[in-house]
Amino acid sequence: MIRLKRIHDMPAPEDGVRVFVDRVWPRGIGKGEAAIDLWLRDIGPSTELRRWFRHDPDRFEIFCERYWAELEGRPEAVARLRGLVEQGDVTLLYSSRDRERNTAVALKRFLERAPVR
What we know:
Layout: E1 2-6, E2 17-20, E3 38-39, H1 47-53, H2 60-72, H3 75-87, E4 90-94, H4 103-113
Parallel strand pairs: 1-4, 2-3, 2-4
């Protein structure tokens, strides 16, 4: 199962493997207090795409399409994350305040729509 949480949320036993999926570390939280198991930087959207998106809700669907195209070009990072998902529960951690439109939401949709290879 894939769960989503803000990196600022408290960890829970049902989280499984906690993977931070943003390319940039968030301000205001230390790496030790984040309780992450893995920071998968390479799975995050490019700097150009993040700057274009700017967390604008009206751009989210286009952001998803562009991000998914980027993910197709990163088979190693996607395979690593898929491997974790196949082994058990995974929680994708993100830093955005918007819980409905962020990198982790887009990534989860990508993983759920694409066939496991």
